[in-house]
Design goal:
The structure is a single chain. α1 runs antiparallel to α2. The protein is α/β, with parallel strands linked by helices. It is globular. β3, α4 and β4 form a beta-alpha-beta unit. It contains six helices and nine strands, in the order ααββαβαβαββαβββ. The N and C termini lie far apart (about 45 Å). It has a single domain, classed as Rossmann fold. Bound molecules: S-adenosylmethionine (SAM). S-adenosylmethionine (SAM) binds next to β2, α4 and β4.
Length: about 220
């Protein structure tokens, strides 16, 4: 079998065994998960595991999230295609790529410059011109492009940073793991004027969100 066909079948298998049984139902999210080449975001020594059911190391003590978590967080944003989004925690750039195909404009911010540069290169190779990578502490959000119809935080916060709530557009959704180091709940916040609804989705375990309004290093 030719390599591209093999990778396509690996992604299809990932969707059928990891996403559909866990209630990923958004047709666009499923379609994007079938097409984004996760193996390009994974270091060469882990590439053979790119479509398996778990996170993988990407250097600097950080990880690329499990495919199911990427799909779930994307689905929770309820995207229609035109939104401007902020992602805090670029990591490999995989989640940003998925969002790039689901929304109008994506800003993603990473505290490790080396990870940000590597992600930027991979995203450019895929021709994703609507995704911009920024270097910095995302616990303060990214005021320059606010407000955002969706914000996604892919590292665990001790509490929701106020700046992220402030930078959410009316009706916008914020998806963020909140809790202790090592175990958290994935939360979805929804802005209604000056009020916010919040729901707990599932227990998760993310690497810490380190910064001024997150955990201290
Ligand atoms: N979304 C990533 C992907 O698709 O590969 C996975 C992200 S990894 C689980 C969490 C990332 O958040 C790490 O790369 C980490 O360096 C970054 N991070 C932690 N604290 C941050 C902060 N205050 N600002 C920006 N990035 C941060």
């Amino acid at each position: 079998m030719d390599n591209e066909l093999f990778l396509e079948s690996e992604r299809e298998y990932m969707v059928e065994t990891q996403l559909l049984p866990r209630r990923i139902r958004d047709g666009l999210v499923l379609q994007v998960m079938r097409t984004v080449p996760r193996h390009l975001f994974v270091p060469p020594e882990y590439r053979h595991l790119a479509y398996t059911d778990g996170p993988l190391p990407i250097g600097f003590g950080q990880t690329i999230s499990q495919p199911y978590i990427v799909a779930l967080m994307s689905q929770l944003l309820e995207l229609k295609g035109q939104e401007r989004l902020l992602e805090v925690g670029t990591g490999s750039g995989y989640q940003a790529a998925v969002l790039g195909y689901l929304a109008g404009e994506v800003h993603t911010i990473e505290r490790f410059p080396e990870l940000a540069r590597q992600a930027e290169q991979t995203l450019a190779e895929l021709g994703l011109e609507n995704v911009s990578v920024h270097i910095g502490d995302g616990t303060a959000g990214l005021l320059e492009f606010a407000p955002y119809q969706g914000i996604i935080v892919t590292a665990a916060a001790p509490h929701v940073p106020q700046a992220l709530l402030d930078q959410l557009a009316d009706g916008g959704r914020l998806v963020i793991p909140v809790g202790e180091r090592g175990s958290q709940f994935l939360e979805r916040w929804r802005r209604r004027g000056d009020d916010f609804d919040v729901e707990e989705v599932i227990p998760v375990a993310f690497v810490p969100l380190v910064g001024q309004f997150g955990w201290r290093d």
